């Protein structure tokens, strides 16, 4: 957002609430704070003392805190003003288009209190379904507790934003599509979109808006598109699934950071979580989006579900593949972390090369990772930073879980770099984490360990 635009907005907001425009010094403090200048420099340019500027700045943050309804400081002022400006224009747009908001609102709390609380509407038994390019599900085993939890979050707790996270192949897409079958009669619209080809927010919103009966032309501007979609989400109860959200995140950077040109998704999801409506977005991803991590601590309408092993239901996969040695199946499921895709790929290897005998296969040095399984993991590992990779390579060498200080001794990173790396690897769901006697220990599961050894050991020798 342009600096001048934000300054003008700040002045308008202060004027409409206090009857006074920002004076020269207040404008200078805002402008120069945005540009990262220190109070001492502002004072020097204006020939006054640093203490004087500091006092004026503190008074300004107080005024802005009051009019914007949030604690404003030098550090967060720009972010808060940008967001307030956005909310302001979006509620003005709704007011202009649909006349549903009373006054121009300037902050999210006010926006919320002015907007009509959506009344649970009667939902048709047959929702409008647009599942786009969703894959067809042929077989589905168990996931009873996972389905119950998600159903509860969506239907009872009216969650607006849910992140369904898990390593590739664990069954996110399958589970989301099965969930639709289970709860579809509660919705007016059910929409599934894969973000595999990284559509921009503008593209995906244009696409979504076409699904609803047109009350107005679809705007070209993203801000106006968001306001139109929010209005639909209020009028109709919708379940919208965005699959493969990780495709919007940058490679070679710590987890959950949007690629250049995709940052507006962050604000979009924040609005979905914070603005009053009765619909739900389910986001499937390998990586936890950073805004979800921030929002879930303070917003009851945001939840994260980390999908784990399919458990003993994995036996159904082996049975369907007609493998033998049923007494060894549990061991095989454990070795492949109950990941249905890994089990399917391994079942093919067992059929092709081990005459279908799970016991014979396990006698070899399992886990054996066939090329297609490794290719699946390549996609995830190609995104890691060099520092993340160094930690993964080190963890693959450890026979026991290790604590942070031990990793620090070996990998030669600064403490803060290592903390960021470990957080990021956790957000990518690549670490096994356990706590014992107030110490956190980290390790890799069998498959990831084997993968790292296969792919990276020769390079580090
Ligand atoms: N609950 C399940 N029952 C049977 N098969 C499953 C189940 N979950 C996943 N699968 C199978 O595992 C494979 C990977 O599942 P998928 O949903 O595509 O994983 P993800 O979206 O997490 O990468 C698919 O072939 C799918 O059919
Ligand atoms: Mg998937």
Structure explained in plain terms:
The structure is a single chain. This protein is α/β, with parallel strands linked by helices. The protein folds into four domains: 3-114, no CATH class; 128-306, Rossmann fold (3-Layer(aba) Sandwich); 311-368, no CATH class; 377-460, Winged helix-like DNA-binding domain superfamily/Winged helix DNA-binding domain (Arc Repressor Mutant, subunit A). Helix content is 52%, strand content 9%. The strands form two sheets. It has a six-stranded parallel beta sheet with strand order 1-3-4-5-2-6, sandwiched between helices. It has a three-stranded antiparallel beta sheet with strand order 7-9-8. Mean pLDDT is 87; it is low at 93-120. The longest helix has 22 residues, at 77-98. It is built from 21 helices and nine strands. It has helices at residues 3-18, 24-34, 39-45, 50-68, 77-98, 108-114, 144-156, 172-183, 201-209, 222-235, 264-274, 290-296, 314-320, 329-335, 340-353, 358-363, 371-381, 386-397, 404-411, 415-427, 446-460; strands spanning 128-130, 161-165, 189-194, 238-243, 280-285, 302-306, 402-403, 432-436, 439-443. α3 (39-45) packs across α4. The structure holds adenosine-5'-diphosphate and magnesium ion. Adenosine-5'-diphosphate binds at residues 139-141, 143, 166, 168-174, 310, 340-341, 344. The site of magnesium ion has 5 residues, from α8.
